[in-house]
User: Fold Catabolic 3-dehydroquinase from Talaromyces proteolyticus.
Amino acid sequence: MAKSILLINGPNLNLLGTREPHIYGSTTLKDVEESSKAQATSLGATLQTFQSNHEGAIVDRIQDARGNTDAIIINPGAYTHTSVAIRDALLGVEIPFIELHVSNVHAREPWRHHSYFSDKAAGIIIGLGAYGYKVAVEHVVLNFKPLEKKAAL
Ligand SMILES: O=C1C[C@@](O)(C(=O)O)C[C@@H](O)[C@@H]1O
Assistant:
């Protein structure tokens, strides 16, 4: 069965490409989502995308992935540094995930150095710009084991 991947982008990432381009580059979220889908398809996997500026909506989307998703790639945006709720959702659904940041958060303000996700992530991609999404998709398709499908509760 084709591996199913969910790509989640958190708050303000809808502005990717136009938001602080000296930090986040000029690639738009639409570019990222379309190229990630095409890349997954070319590798024999499926990829769904989700972006929200709302913490609860991200929690709901993660819960909906339970039992039907093999891997999550998540850029939690600013929620990286604040969200126990999104961390708990990822742990609750037991889907392995990659944490991704477009910018090098460790070269930025000290409060961006802490993440509520890194100690639980299968891997972390930081500071590779939009190229990081390509690395993440390739990695999860080639190296993640498909989950045993669990019935959604
Ligand atoms: O919104 C973002 C984007 C980000 O996750 C990144 O992709 O570099 C880094 C976060 O600190 C920031 O709040």
About this structure: The domain at 4-143 is CATH 3.40.50.9100 (Rossmann fold).
